[in-house]
Structure formats: structure tokens, C-alpha cells
């Protein structure tokens, strides 16, 4: 989604903006631009395409300015084009704006402005907003709050104004915005990555807050009802190395390889094997609620939804509490039955997914307890939740989610085991055995990563196929879905995930020698049945790539290729079976020369509906 960056201080703004925009590229975008404010007025440079394409239209001597705003746009209103790119000037060119979000009532505001003589150069809702701001600031001589009040929808905005060379005004509703506070300077951004090397002091804007960042008067924060707020300055834990590639060709490959560490970090301080216990801060506080809950409803999108499906298997199997897993986008619009005895668990890597946030708001209105599972500390979903557990996967930059998924599965394993022990639905010896195995998962995942070369070889054989089927059973059915999602989103190969037994009810019609099937066939309760499914595919000349348990001698005789993963308890198996699927997708995408980290049309955090 769109990325916002801004600077005001003593330094040259332009290099800071360009570097910041490059840091935000991972969010997904189709055009980029900057606006710089100096004694000549506001200069805007913007271009469809990547930040480097925008850089080409900047004069060799880049414009000198100490105030500037920059933007990467992910098209919503109007196609990706130079005109629709941000920043946008107001009619008089005295004001410039960048915006992330959607102004839902922009058509009515636009027609009002047209009657007052405004004309528009772009198709965007943002150009409407900047002219509304011009109308209230310059013509009605009232403050910017008046314009913000009239807006229905979501926004994170930054506004600069000619003649007001001392300030940037920012406001937020529904889209993220964070202020970095340096020595006599301010930074703004959609997340802290653009300014982490300059300052670690940050203020996250809350919903419907507006801030004036002034070199003369400092940081003034208020909400849109004009109530003055005291900024809460936090010290960021983010490190620069964690948002750089660190020698890998792509962030995705780095993040796949980081999984032993991210799983370890997610377990650290929580899984206390020696004491035979689990300490999950936010969860322990709400334990009684969990134990008396009628059911747990998980809401999420994409990969996080797949982690939710794994959680359903874990919690129902181990703790015997009914779990429903819903796409957040469907849940919020289907008038769901929710009661005060329900626990709603939103899962989100970014913590900013608009559909998931709206689902939380709906569930809260109906009295449910919200227990968020998020990766980004301080994100909107984390703040909207009553309690929760962070996944400590570290920043995930590649658009295709990898380490966030395994960290989410890890957190749910901890939750399911805690609940099971409290409810007495597993024996103490089983609990002890499972926590020992969970403790060993970082090293099992490390061992699994050794299949990289083999995954690459298999990728080279199948890189040109137009379609691919992924099958799994039980707790590995969501892994099949996740494998298919990884392949389609980064390599643009059509892929479908199915429960293996469901294949006979339709997808088997697609099987022929050109349609490979990836099957998770590890040694589990369903092993024999999966072997039968593989036989059915082979009988129709289909090609099989099977993920099997080390030492398997049955599937290796039937399948075209096997990738071995360590032998672990079935309930923990998604943490290892996912790895070869991530690696195969990665290598196929690289071989097809796709943009692995920023696949076409996709955004890292989907902050619009
Ligand atoms: C995963 O590879 C995707 N890019 C996407 O499906 C993602 O998982 C989804 O948009 C949810 O995002 P969230 O976890 O940040 O809420």
C-alpha cells in the first residue's frame, strides 16, 4: 500500500526522502513522488513506476530544501500514471499533500468544490482533499481540522504549505503514521523504517489525531475534536540490520533463512522447558476468559488466515475449544453472531490490514474479547486489541509472508498447549513431550533449510508449468493452501491448494502429465490415505513432488521427487513442511525473473478494503 515519508529540520530533505521511499518499497506501489518546500515555493517531482524512475526526472543538482514529503502510491482511484501520483498540489499550488487511504465521500466534496471553481487534473480522491484543505485554510481562513472533519474514510496525510516554511501537518485515521523525533528535526513515515538510522524516538499517531511538527514550536498533538494530547514518545527496538538484505539476493530468501531464529525469538522467555511451563504474558492475563469461552473466532487474511487454520487444528485437537476461522473481509459483512462469551483472535503480520481491523471493531461492538496476534509492535491491530501475543518474527519486508507465518503458528502452538494443560485435555506427560519438541523446532527448521539445493533443482524442472496443485491433509491442509499462495503470488503460476481427499471431488479432472502436484505426505495419522491420493494422481500420469518424513521408503518409490523433512510430532509438522514449499516458490520466481520481493499488484500491508 501507499508509503509516506517526510522531513523537516536542518538537513537536506531530498536524499532523506528518496532513501525513505526506497525503504517503503516493500509495501507495494506503482508510482512515486516528492514535494520540496523552499523559498521558491513547492516543487513537485513525480512519476509512474519505481522510485528509481522518479529519480531520473530530478535535476542533476537536486532541489535544495529542508522540508519535504514523499510518497509511493498503490493505485486505488485512477490508474497508475504520472498525474495520479502523489504529492498533489492544491489549485493555487500553495499547498501539497501526500495521502494513504481512501476518502469515501470524495465525489460529494468534489462537486461542492467544482461549484466553487476548482478544477482537477487527476482522478484521485487525494486531489479533492488537498483542494478542500486549500478552501478551508486559504479562503475560509480556518484551520486544517475543518477539512479533516468533513472526510469520511481512511487517511494518513502530510501537508506542507507555501509561506509556512516551519511546519508539516499530519493527521491519521485508519492508516498508519509515525513521527520520528530527532535533534531539532522531525521525520514522518508509514512505519519507522525510513528514519531508523536517524532516531529511535517515535510517536505513533492514534486514530483521528492531528499533529503539527514545527521547528519553532515543537510537536503539537491534538485530536480532531481539538482536545490537546500529550505525545507518548517510545524508544524503538528496531535495528537497521534487520531491515537490510544482509548479503542475500532477496528479502524473501533472507526471511526464509531467518526462521530458526524467528521461531526461537517467538518462544524465548515463554516456553520454559526446564520448569515445564509456558508463560505467555497477555494470554495468562486472559486465561480465565479463554477457559470459559464458548468459542474462539479467528479473523485474518491471506497467509495469516492460513495460520488461523493451523490454529484451529491445534486448539480443537489439544484444548477441545470450538474454533471458527473466518476471512476478515467476509466476517465483517455477514452480520455474524458474536457474544460476550466469544474470544475473537485477529491474526496479522502488519497489524494494519483494513479488513482485519474492521472485523475487530465489529466484534468489539458486540462485546467479544479481542486477543490480537500481531508481528508489528504498536500497530493498529495491536492497539485495538484488549490483549494479545506478539509474534517476534522481526521486520518482514518481502511481500510474500514466510517467517511471519511460522511465528504465528508457533504462538498458536503455545496458546493451544497452555489451554490444553489448564483444561486437562492432554496428559502431563504429553504436555512435557510436546514442549520439549517445540523447544527443538528452531534446530529442526535449521535442518530443514538444507533442502534448499534440492528445492532449487526441482524448481528448475517445473518453472515453466502454467498450473500447479498443492495437497495436504489434517494440519497440513493449510500448509498446502499456503504453498499454493506462495507460488501464485511471486511467480504468477496458477496454483490451488486442496485437502488431499477433496481432490477426487473435482481437481482430479485437471491432472495430466503437464500438471504437477505438490503433496505433503509426512508420516502422520493420514499417511496411508495420502499415499492412496498419490497413487490416484500417478495413475493419471500426473507428476508428484512429495514432502516426506526423513527415511520414508514408500512415497519415494511412487513420487517423481521427494523432499525429506525431519521427523516431528504431527501437530508441529507445519513448521517444517512449509519450508520446502517456500523455497521452491522462491526459486521458481527467481528463475522466471519475477520481482520476488515486490510482486506485481501486491502490497505488503493492505490498508484499504
Ligand atoms: C502473504 O504472502 C500475503 N502477501 C498476504 O496474503 C498477507 O498475508 C495478507 O495480506 C494479510 O496481511 P497481514 O498478516 O499483514 O494482516
Explain this structure to me?
This protein is α/β, with parallel strands linked by helices and 609 residues long. 35% of the residues lie in helices and 24% in strands. The chain has 21 helices and 27 strands. An eight-stranded antiparallel sheet has the order 3-2-4-1-10-9-11-15. Strands 5-6-7-8-12-13-14 form a seven-stranded antiparallel sheet, with helices on one face. A five-stranded parallel sheet has the order 19-18-20-21-22, sandwiched between helices. Strand 7 (155-161) and strand 8 form a beta hairpin. Helix 16 runs parallel beside helix 21, helix 17 (452-462) packs across helix 21 and helix 18 runs parallel beside helix 21 (574-591). The longest helix is centred in the C-terminal third of the chain and has 21 residues, at 403-423. It is globular, with a radius of gyration of 25 Å. The chain starts with a strand and ends in an 18-residue tail after the last helix. 55% of the residues are buried. The mean pLDDT is 93. Residues 301-304, 348-350, 353, 356, 399-401, 489, 602, 605-606 line the site of 2-deoxy-2-amino glucitol-6-phosphate.
Amino acid at each position: 500500500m501507499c508509503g509516506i515519508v517526510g522531513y523537516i529540520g536542518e538537513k537536506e530533505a531530498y536524499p532523506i526522502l528518496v532513501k525513505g521511499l526506497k525503504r517503503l518499497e516493500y509495501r507495494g506501489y506503482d508510482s512515486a513522488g516528492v514535494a520540496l518546500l523552499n523559498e521558491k515555493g513547492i516543487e513537485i517531482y513525480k512519476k509512474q513506476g519505481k522510485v528509481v524512475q522518479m529519480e531520473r526526472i530530478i535535476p542533476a543538482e537536486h532541489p535544495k530544501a529542508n522540508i519535504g514529503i514523499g510518497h509511493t502510491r498503490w493505485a486505488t482511484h485512477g490508474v497508475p500514471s504520472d498525474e495520479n501520483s502523489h504529492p498533489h498540489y492544491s489549485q493555487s499550488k500553495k499547498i501539497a499533500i501526500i495521502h494513504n487511504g481512501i476518502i469515501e465521500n470524495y465525489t460529494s466534496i468534489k462537486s461542492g468544490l467544482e461549484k466553487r471553481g476548482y478544477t482537477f487534473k487527476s482522478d484521485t480522491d487525494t486531489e479533492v482533499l488537498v483542494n478542500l484543505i486549500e478552501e478551508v485554510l486559504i479562503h475560509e481562513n480556518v484551520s486544517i481540522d475543518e477539512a479533516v472533519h468533513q472526510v469520511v474514510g481512511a487517511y494518513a496525510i502530510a501537508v506542507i504549505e507555501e509561506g509556512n516554511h516551519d511546519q508539516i501537518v499530519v493527521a491519521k485515521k485508519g492508516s498508519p503514521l509515525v513521527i520520528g523525533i530527532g535533534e531539532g528535526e522531525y521525520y514522518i513515515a508509514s512505519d519507522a523504517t525510513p528514519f531508523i538510522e536517524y532516531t529511535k524516538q517515535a510517536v505513533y499517531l492514534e486514530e483521528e489525531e492531528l499533529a503539527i511538527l514545527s521547528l519553532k514550536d515543537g510537536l503539537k498533538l491534538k485530536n480532531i475534536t481539538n482536545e490537546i494530547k500529550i505525545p507518548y514518545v517510545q524508544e524503538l527496538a528496531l535495528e537497521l540490520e534487520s531491515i537490510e538484505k544482509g548479503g542475500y539476493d532477496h528479502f524473501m530468501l533472507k526471511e526464509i533463512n531467518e526462521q530458526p531464529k524467528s521461531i526461537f525469538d517467538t518462544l524465548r522467555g515463554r516456553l520454559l522447558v526446564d520448569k515445564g511451563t509456558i508463560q505467555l504474558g497477555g494470554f495468562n492475563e486472559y486465561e480465565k476468559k479463554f477457559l470459559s469461552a464458548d468459542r474462539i473466532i479467528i479473523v485474518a487474511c491471506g497467509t495469516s488466515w492460513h495460520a488461523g487454520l493451523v490454529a484451529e487444528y491445534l486448539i480443537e485437537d489439544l484444548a477441545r475449544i470450538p474454533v471458527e476461522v473466518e476471512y476478515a473481509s467476509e466476517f465483517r459483512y455477514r452480520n455474524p453472531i458474536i457474544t460476550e462469551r466469544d474470544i475473537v483472535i485477529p491474526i496479522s503480520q502488519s497489524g494494519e490490514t483494513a479488513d482485519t481491523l474492521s472485523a475487530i471493531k465489529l466484534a468489539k461492538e458486540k462485546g467479544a474479547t479481542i486477543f490480537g496476534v500481531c508481528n508489528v509492535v504498536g500497530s493498529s491491530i495491536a492497539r485495538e486489541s484488549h490483549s494479545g501475543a506478539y509474534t517476534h518474527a522481526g521486520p518482514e519486508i518481502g511481500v510474500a509472508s514466510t517467517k511471519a507465518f511460522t511465528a504465528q503458528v508457533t504462538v498458536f502452538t503455545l496458546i493451544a498447549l497452555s489451554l490444553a494443560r489448564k483444561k486437562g485435555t492432554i496428559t502431563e506427560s504429553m504436555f512435557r513431550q510436546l514442549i520439549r519438541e517445540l523447544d527443538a523446532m528452531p534446530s529442526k527448521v535449521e535442518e530443514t533449510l538444507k533442502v534448499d539445493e534440492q528445492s532449487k533443482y526441482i524448481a528448475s524442472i517445473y518453472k515453466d508449468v502454467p498450473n500447479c496443485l498443492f495437497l495436504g491433509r489434517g494440519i497440513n491442509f493449510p500448509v498446502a493452501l499456503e504453498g499454493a499462495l506462495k507460488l501464485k503470488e511471486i511467480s504468477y503460476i496458477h496454483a490451488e491448494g486442496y485437502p488431499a481427499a477433496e481432490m477426487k471431488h473435482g481437481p482430479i479432472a485437471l491432472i495430466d502429465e503437464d500438471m504437477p502436484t505438490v503433496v505433503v505426505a509426512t508420516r502422520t495419522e493420514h499417511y496411508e490415505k495420502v499415499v492412496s491420493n498419490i497413487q490416484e494422481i500417478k495413475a493419471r500420469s500426473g507428476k508428484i513432488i512429495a514432502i516426506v518424513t526423513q527415511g520414508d521408503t514408500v512415497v519415494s518409490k511412487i513420487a517423481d521427487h521427494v523432499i525429506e523433512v525431519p521427523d516431528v510430532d504431527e501437530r508441529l509438522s507445519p513448521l517444517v513442511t512449509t519450508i520446502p514449499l517456500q523455497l521452491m516458490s522462491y526459486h521458481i520466481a527467481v528463475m522466471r525473473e519475477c520481482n520476488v520481493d515486490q510482486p506485481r499488484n501486491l502490497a505488503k500491508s493492505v490498508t484499504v478494503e
